[in-house]
Each structure stands twice: as structure tokens, then as C-alpha cells.
Write a structure and sequence with these properties.
The protein is α+β, with helices and mostly antiparallel strands. The protein is built from 13 helices and eleven strands. The longest helix has 38 residues.
Length: 344
């Protein structure tokens, strides 16, 4: 193996210009294609997160019969389902002394429509009603049954369910109320599966499922963009070009390989030499270019972008593996005399 390495390095030094060209070209191709992957994947991931924040992955489960109610306990149990970010029950209005709308909800509903509110908040005033009634955190609200509750939070307008902006949400135990609706927010990549499960979640009770934010369109659209991003095609094209450049250099030296074989060199030793050239001229600059691209935008490489970059890096390196069998096929399976005539 040591002799094969020495011979490989000697061949590269003897043809340093073409070797350096291939090394730098592969490095640049890997950097450019991976930079495109990072930029495109981070842009799509940002759109996905924006869709999630605005309720694009949420939906409303309601009873199929007008006026019927759902089990609030059963609705809250959706919080334990894989792929569900949050779920909660929206109950009936409860009378107040001031006459403003106060609605009974479960804690999961507050998390679903106001994700930034503390999970322990028991009374939350929407932005519109707080402005109209001059509510602030700590304001006391008197219910018609004589009870007084204190406002725990007055968040900004909800991006997910604008109905809550004009209501005071009063958190109640799920076991003490019925739900007019069950609002579910799924994880970005799990909406289809969670929605299918939720359709039959209250069986045998018939329910209907509708988007929480229909104006945003289908959440799957952004996911489809991620799976069909154009940087995948660019990555395949640049990886293929890198392989062809290295194989082209080998073909230009076919008479050398033929001479080695006429002098008695074993195919195994020649294959080892090709493998080392693959490592030095293809895999090392590929990994270096990928590393430079990731290092240039480290703030974007997380979550789904990290997964996309890792997959792209593997695809690029695996494509480079195609150079070795091509080299063996073109240089080590033909008659050496014929290779010498071709290289003459």
C-alpha cells in the first residue's frame, strides 16, 4: 500500500497542473452546489416556520351536527400524539358582569392560539378587547356567578386564530367543560398524518375537519418545495461533472496504465492507485468545499436545513464513488496493447 501511495503521489506531481485543476475545480463545484443547498433550504425552512407560526399547520375539529359538542378531555389527549405541537378545546361563552365576551377554554387551546403566553396563564385577554376595555395584566374580571379572576396575560394579536383577539379566555379543567371545537396545531412535517388521525379521533362521534387558517393555503405546498428544490438537480449535475473531470484525466493517461500492466503490475495495485487518486482529487476537495459552504452560513444549518445539507453532502460524496468503477472499467479491463494504440 505504501508503494501504491508513493506511485500515486509521483504521478500527481508529474502532472501537477491537471491534478491541481481537478482538485480546485472539484472544491469550487462542491462549495457552490452546497452553498446553493444551504441558501435554498434555509429560505424554504424559514417559509415553513412562518407558516407554522401563523397557523398554517393547524385545523379545527368540530362536530358534524350543528350545536353538538366534543369531549374536551379527549381533545386535550391529542397533546400526547406524536406530531402534534399543541391541541386544546374551545368551549362556550361564560357571562360576565361587564358584558364582554369571556370564553371557557382548556390550557392547550391557549398554547395553540397564543404560543408565546406562559403555559400557567389561567386568564388571557385578547388584544382588541384589552384595548376596548382598558385591560392590563392584573386587571380583575368579575364573572356573573360572583367570581373574580385576574388577568395573567394580555398578548399581542394572535396570528393563528383572530377570534381570540376579541375575547377573554378563561382556562378551565377539561373535565369540567365540553368543547364546541378542538383546535390542533401539528408539527410542520406531520400535518397530513395528524389530520388523518384527528378525523377519527372522536369516533364514533362524526366530526368535520377544516383548516385553521385557510387563507394561507395548503401547508404541504411549502413541504413539496423542500422536497423538490432546484438545488438537488444542481448538486447532481456538479457531482457528475466532478466525476467526469477525474475520469477524463485518467483517460488521458491510459497509455501509462497500459504500460503498468505490460510491466506486470497487478490490477489490485492499480485499482488501489485509482482509489487514492479518488480520495486526493475528489473526496478530499469535495468535503473541503462542503465544509467551507457550511462554515460560511453556520446560523442557517440547523433543523431541517441540517438534514438537507447532510443528505446533499452524502449524495455528492457518493456520486464521487462512481469514478472508481468507471476508471477500472475503462482502464483495467481492456487489452493494454489496445490502450497504448488509443493513447498514441
Amino acid at each position: 500500500m505504501r508503494d501504491a501511495l508513493d506511485e500515486t503521489l509521483a504521478n500527481l506531481r508529474a502532472r501537477w497542473a491537471s491534478s491541481l485543476f481537478v482538485f480546485l475545480a472539484v472544491l469550487v463545484l462542491a462549495f457552490a452546489s452546497m452553498a446553493m443547498v444551504v441558501n435554498e433550504a434555509s429560505s424554504i425552512a424559514s417559509d415553513q416556520q412562518d407558516l407554522f407560526d401563523r397557523g398554517g399547520t393547524g385545523f379545527i375539529i368540530s362536530d358534524g351536527d350543528a350545536g353538538a359538542s366534543l369531549s374536551a378531555v379527549r381533545c386535550e389527549e391529542l397533546n400526547h400524539v406524536a406530531g402534534v405541537a399543541s391541541a386544546g378545546a374551545r368551549g362556550s361563552l361564560t357571562p360576565t358582569v361587564g358584558g364582554f365576551p369571556a370564553r371557557l377554554v382548556t390550557s392547550g387551546y391557549v398554547r395553540s392560539v397564543h404560543p408565546g403566553v406562559d403555559a400557567t396563564a389561567a386568564t388571557v385577554a385578547g388584544a382588541s378587547i384589552a384595548s376596548a376595555w382598558h385591560f392590563v395584566e392584573g386587571s380583575g374580571i368579575r364573572l356573573s356567578d360572583g367570581g373574580v379572576v385576574s388577568l395573567d396575560a394580555v398578548p399581542a394579536k394572535s396570528d393563528r386564530d383572530p377570534r381570540v383577539d376579541g375575547e377573554v379566555l378563561v382556562v378551565a379543567p377539561a373535565s369540567s367543560m365540553q368543547a364546541s371545537e378542538c383546535v390542533v396545531i401539528s408539527a410542520i412535517s406531520s400535518r397530513a398524518g395528524v389530520e388523518a388521525l384527528a378525523t377519527n379521533w372522536f369516533a364514533p362521534q362524526a366530526t368535520s375537519v377544516s383548516p385553521l387558517a385557510p387563507q394561507l393555503g395548503a401547508a404541504s405546498g411549502v413541504h413539496d418545495r423542500f422536497m423538490g428544490r432546484s438545488s438537488i438537480a444542481v448538486l447532481l449535475a456538479t457531482g457528475g461533472l466532478a466525476v467526469l473531470m477525474l475520469v477524463g484525466v485518467w483517460i488521458s493517461r491510459r497509455s501509462d496504465f497500459a504500460l503498468y500492466r505490460l510491466l506486470g503490475a497487478k490490477r489490485g495495485a492499480l485499482t488501489a492507485g485509482l482509489l487514492m487518486e479518488c480520495a486526493l482529487l475528489l473526496w478530499i476537495p469535495s468535503l473541503a468545499g462542503i465544509g467551507f459552504a457550511v462554515a460560511a452560513r453556520p446560523e442557517f444549518v440547523s433543523g431541517p436545513v441540517f438534514e438537507a445539507v447532510t443528505l446533499a453532502a452524502l449524495q455528492f460524496v457518493v456520486m464521487g464513488c462512481a469514478a472508481l468503477p468507471l476508471g477500472v472499467l475503462l482502464l483495467l479491463t481492456k487489452n493494454p496493447s489496445g490502450l497504448i494504440r488509443e493513447g498514441a
